[in-house]
Amino acid sequence: MDAVRSRGARGFSLIELLVVIVIIALGSSLAVAWLAGTHPGERLDREARELAGAFRLAADVARARQRVIGWQPLAEGYRFVSWQPGHGWQPFGERLGLDPQRWNPPLQPSRQPPAADTTTPWLVWLPDGEVVGAHIRLAGDGASRTLAVDALGVSVTGSGQ
Question: Where are the transmembrane segments (predicted)?
């Protein structure tokens, strides 16, 4: 009987291990959040990189699916749309990574040259690989990043923080 007790006393219980894992996970989450918040320009860089990747994906999907795809900023984010003959611009309905997104933190996008109206997409990718491009400027936290979108691809430049 003493041999059974001494074997059990040498290890940790499952509950103790789970508590330690939860504490480590919480600490890691807080450390990542704290480090990500130290430099506002880093968050803007991340948003610009993610948006550039989404633009590259939209170009690939337009060619592969032979569809006209557009990009529209919204009040708190952006969405991709596709041209439907007889119906105009409709939200992109396929689950290919072109889902509507929210800005985090809120950003103010602007377009050069300025957009004619808010109902027309700011960027349009055609099935033949052409793109009606522009320079999209993202501003927030005292910094800005510009995404130049054209038939050659997407490039990101920035200023501030």
Answer: 12-36
Residues 40-50, mean pLDDT to the nearest whole number: 82
Strand partners, 109: 138
Residue 142 pLDDT grade (very low, low, confident, very high; cuts 50, 70, 90): confident
Proportion of the chain above pLDDT 70, given as a percent: 86
Please identify which residue in the block is written with the tokens 């950003």.
107
